[in-house]
Amino acid sequence: MKHATQNNTEKTGRTVSIMIDSKATRFDFDQLKHFHKGDSWFGCAVGFRVMQLAARELSGKTLWSRKQLSVLSGHPGAGVRDAIEMIGASVSNNRFQLLDETNNQGCNRNMKFEWWLKHGDDSLHIKLKDGFVPEQFFTLLDRLSHNNENNEDKKEFDQMKHDLSNNLWQQPLDALFEFDFAPAQPTPKTA
Predict the structure, then answer these.
(1) For a designed S-S bond to 128, which of 73, 89, 113, 147 qualifies (C-beta 3.0 to 4.6 A apart)?
(2) Looking at the DSSP assignment, which residues form a beta bridge with residue 100?
């Protein structure tokens, strides 16, 4: 479905806009790469694309606003978190929560590529389509996180993150994500 909103990403490419203190502010993906300062390139790309989709769906005829945004994330990774923070300031304003607070040690096999964004009265559920991330990604992630890594694993994992990131930018949002307006967010799991 095409949307004639303030945030039509077909027109903006690698940018997203949001209201900050009554001023429209545009962010681009290069800014996120500087903001992140880590190596979670795939996470940054996923998070940025999630925020682009959220901007498109939550803006309507007026631009969405940081003040009204809160995020529940199934993904604990630093790249995703930094994308949400740079655009929405949800982390620093205590409007960011993990779906599973016990699963907060970064990327792992149990994380979900799934988010619930609340903006005013609207709750948007976004999920990366099944199969986008191959099983080999999680196999390598398991090996790397359990110190069973070797240089070849690290090289393969870095190449996979690079390839997945590129793939995210080559497809339209509707081909990447399933999304719907949900009446309520799930209850986060705490320790």
Answers:
(1) 113
(2) 189
